[in-house]
Amino acid sequence: MSLFEHKINNRGRFTNRGRFTNPFVGQFITLGEEFVPEYAATASGQVVAIEENKITFRRTQPFLFYANGITHVNHRQWVNKNAPILTLTYQKLVTGDIVQGIPKIEQFFEAPATREGEPLPNSLQSRLRKTYHRLRNSLPQIQAVKHSLEEIQQVLVEGILRVYLSQGVRIADKHLEVVIRQMTSKGQILDVGNTGLFQGEFVNLDRIERINLGTYGQKADYEPSVLGITQASLGAESFISAASFQETTRVLSRDTIVGKTDFLRGLKERVVLGDVIQAGTGLDDNINYGLLFGV
Fold first, then answer.
1. SS3 133
2. pLDDT-derived band of residue 146, with 50, 70 and 90 as boundaries?
């Protein structure tokens, strides 16, 4: 038992956090608590003796814990050294890998519209189409496309994060948003009008709008689409970007036959070739190139 004493000049009443009370043996004083006017305790303890000009404490150690903790001692019980006092419960994620969640992740990233030749009633594409047609009744086409894509992008992010968290893996939203933005960057042509596009073709949304702005007569009618990560990557405008993903031979053979030209507009193809990317010191050159060639 460790005792320490505090001498006081005047006998009488003591304070408890600014309120004067009659002291009594057995009272607990915590560290920093003012038990004498303008004097705070330098350690926590229990009052064991009160004399004319001094007060004696038994040194104690206070523990703070939340109400759901499980205590193993009772009031006024002596505790041995290293004996357990209480148990704190908490939740902990058990696993640290995503192997079990890969099939679920694939359902989001590949966005399948059919299964064994049968259309899926609640696929991402069907949900996007329903949302688009609902908003199209009250909003212009551009705004309806934007808001419907925002809704399906939120569904994708939350769904993928939920699978990762169920497996004990935490991932920042920004890593998923980069991929999902690419998956939702194209629209499908429904009516070509006078644009020269092909019906059923998947074209970047910003390119469709540019073509519609420069077209006299009937504009192209389209709807937003969500593509799987494989389809979106292989259908990129840059054959360097598409070939670096998978099916390299097929992509290069197809674009060689048609004599396709890669203008290196994207970030990935410039990284593959070691060219200056469209950021930092290379941003001005990219802007000048776009103004000159209209890309």
1. helix
2. very high
